[in-house]
Design goal:
The protein is mainly β and 707 residues long. Helix content is 4%, strand content 46%.
């Protein structure tokens, strides 16, 4: 704005009859009608420097001749429009990135002395040295909401060579600056792959307002994502350990962020191929199931000094179950989701743990699982509440913090205290007693008290004994069969902790006996031996026989009764790929009248020498042309081995004699037609027909000596 003063020249100072000023006639500003001999008008200076300042005034009314037009005088003021350009670079602000505000003096002889900006809560200043151009750099805060606009305020002082300095030599203004939308961030994992195992790639959006609509990967063939945003491909068994896989991936997303136009995102996932030692053995019982069947997973650490804090198991697109600890094991229950198609699937598991020093660890993996066709009406999959229950607070001076199921976070130095609550027995009927034992997993963590309750009805304080804190609860007599929340909490100078256990309340029917295995060692090279010790949990029935074998390609090994229990000496196939193999096992109990089966992961280490025969190289080519179907083949082979297990509990252990060099075992077709007998030949058409093929036992063919 600029102020223009107009006044009469006569000595009597008669008031002006009227006046006005303008840069553009159409935007002329009239003088105020205040009756004085001096009039002041404020007018906005336009951006265009080529315009001139015009004025016009009328003579006082007393000098006007009757019936004549008033005398009017006009002119142009010697006026220079000083022009300063204020711009930003880049033209949109990016959260977390610098923004330059540039002040440029356009008018000749104009110099900028001081300048300042204010934008998005950030202020900036320039130096006071007169210059034609000055730049202020500010950093846009990460907290600025993307996709909108904000007002940038600026101010400056100046010097003009043709005018004396004045306090009024200042300028201010505003400009709108857009806030750029940062590209959405996505997490595509995993970081490693193992030969012969499924590679499960998980897609996640790390940007608020952005959801993944479609995704997939390409490895020998394109594999689209499931509704859980996971894509699965098989890694061929002959993939060299130490190599890197380049797996292209793509995704399409939807955005609720204002002004964003979603586009396809694609990149390449570089995955190293490794053969890792198994850090946790995971056992599923039973080893296969139908939709609606309950599956129990037992998880045990294989590394000395590692203690489990919590764990989770689930099928794809299912809620799954959290773990429960007893004096014998960590286990979790889950269900085969209703509507799951028969065939191969993966049972996911994740474990949180601490080492001997209390440092936190995390591990996860997949266990191949065989889904059987449903039999009749499918049992609905039980739903699990995600509401976290806690006990009423304890009056204490120890500051409480947010906790997880079996751990707590405090403001103390690392490591954070970790606690665990174990129950004995694993399950009980209404009215029966349950012992809850709470202990600390991290070193130098002293417990000062704990409590436990079923559903928060009757809170029972713990009694300390020998470093352990024990509370004895009674299952409510009106409890329905199923899972009942058992709540517990801990007080400690190191920080509190709490958790919830889904405790199983038994009904009138007897529960299924629980079994498992211990594998020693947990990881071996191909051709190595594993001692598989079978166990009965929770005072279950004694084992009377068992078998175990690696699937596919393994040889069944019958158990022998030892002082440690029923032990099978299982040999990992010499051609087993490095990574994780599946151990199928079956036990007999009740004098052999009943059986139970399961599957356990076993680590296969990389071979130190490569002695691949020609047939294995050919197999590798075949696998590379159809590796995506390998998971179903592996499970089909496992299903075949499981059928053999069920029928061979009384067989003796196979001799592991080494064949002489150049000696191989081959199948020899007998002379004449095969003897085939049909079971129920007049049965109506159905999916399965049982064939019994009678043939002589395999012969041994000894190749000729080479010349």
């Amino acid at each position: 704005m600029v102020r223009v003063d107009l006044q009469t020249k006569d000595k009597y100072k008669f008031p002006l009859g009227g006046c006005r000023v303008w840069f553009v006639l159409e935007a002329a500003v009239p003088c105020p009608a205040d009756g004085d001999s001096q009039r002041s008008v404020e007018i906005e200076v336009p951006d265009s420097p080529e315009l001139e300042l015009h004025w016009e005034a009328q003579e006082p009314g007393v000098n006007q001749v009757a019936n004549s037009a008033p005398y009017t005088e006009s002119g142009i003021v010697d006026f220079t429009i000083l022009q300063v350009d204020v711009s930003v670079k880049p033209n949109v602000a990016v959260p977390g990135k610098p923004l330059n505000v540039i002040f440029s003096a356009v008018t000749e002889g104009l110099r900028i002395t001081k300048c300042g900006v204010a934008f998005a809560g950030v202020d900036g200043r320039c130096d006071e040295i007169p210059a034609r151009q000055k730049v202020i750099e500010i950093v846009i805060p990460d907290s600025v909401p993307p996709g909108g606009q904000d007002v940038l305020k600026w101010s400056l002082t100046y010097l003009y060579a043709r005018a004396k300095p004045s306090r009024d030599d200042v300028g201010t203004g505003t400009t709108k600056v857009g806030i750029a939308l940062l590209p959405p961030k996505f997490d595509v994992s995993p970081s490693t792959a193992q030969p012969g195992l499924p590679l499960v790639v998980t897609f996640r959006s790390n940007t608020t307002g952005v959801t993944i609509d479609d995704c997939g990967i390409t490895y020998q063939a394109q594999a689209g994502c499931s509704p859980a945003r996971t894509a699965v491909v098989m890694i061929p068994p002959d993939t060299p350990v130490g190599s890197r896989l380049r797996i292209p991936w793509f995704l399409h997303y939807k955005s609720a962020r204002p002004g964003e136009k979603p586009d396809a995102v694609q990149d390449v996932l570089s995955v190293p191929v490794v053969a890792e030692r198994v850090r946790f053995t995971v056992t599923a019982q039973p080893g296969s199931g139908r939709p609606g069947d309950e599956i129990t997973l037992t998880i045990e650490p294989t590394v000395k000094g590692v203690s489990i804090v919590d764990c989770l198991v689930f099928f794809p697109s299912a809620d799954g179950g959290t773990c429960q600890a007893t004096d014998e094991r960590w286990f979790a229950r889950t269900w085969v989701p209703a509507g799951t198609a028969p065939g191969a699937t993966l049972l996911h598991w994740g474990v949180g743990s601490v080492d001997a020093a209390g440092a936190p660890l995390a591990d996860h993996g997949d266990l191949p699982f065989d889904v059987l066709p449903p039999k009749g009406k499918t049992t609905p999959t039980p739903s699990r509440s995600r509401t976290r229950l806690t006990l009423p607070p304890v009056e204490s001076t120890t500051p409480r913090t947010t906790t997880t199921t079996t751990t707590t976070t405090t403001t103390n130095q690392e490591p954070h205290p970790e606690y665990v609550a174990r129950t004995e027995p694993e399950a009980a009927k209404p009215g029966k007693s349950v012992r809850v034992t709470v202990s600390a997993l991290t070193p130098a963590t002293a417990i000062t008290g704990c409590r436990a309750t079923f559903g928060g009805e009757r809170i029972v304080p713990c009694a300390g004994s020998g470093g352990l804190w024990i509370a004895t609860l009674t299952v409510p007599r009106d409890a329905e069969p199923g899972d009942l929340p058992l709540l517990w909490d801990v007080t400690s100078p190191a920080g509190p902790g709490n958790g919830t256990i889904a405790y199983r309340v038994l009904g009138n029917s007897a529960p299924s006996p629980q079994f498992g295995v211990e594998v020693d060692p947990a990881s071996v090279p191909p051709g190595g031996h594993i001692k598989v010790t079978h166990r009965s949990y929770d005072n279950g029935p004694p084992i009377t026989g068992c078998n175990a074998g690696i699937a596919p390609g393994g040889v069944l090994a019958a158990c022998a009764a030892t002082a440690r229990g029923w032990v099978a000496d299982v040999v990992v196939p010499k051609d087993a790929p490095p990574g994780t193999a599946t151990l199928l096992w079956q036990v007999a109990y009740n004098a052999g009248a009943a059986t139970a089966d399961g599957r356990t992961n076993v680590g296969v280490l990389a071979q130190t020498e490569d002695h691949q025969p020609w047939w294995k190289k050919v197999l590798g080519v075949i696998l590379k042309s159809g590796a995506v179907a390998l998971l179903g083949v592996a499970l089909f082979g496992g299903r075949t081995l499981l059928r053999r297990l069920r029928g061979r509990l009384q067989r003796t252990k196979t001799e592991d004699a080494e064949l002489p060099e150049l000696v191989d075992v081959v199948a020899v077709r007998p002379a004449g037609p095969l003897s085939v007998m049909f079971d129920e030949p007049d049965a109506p058409p159905r999916r399965l027909i049982r064939l019994t093929v009678r043939r002589p036992p395999p012969g041994i063919h000894i190749g000729e000596e080479p010349p």
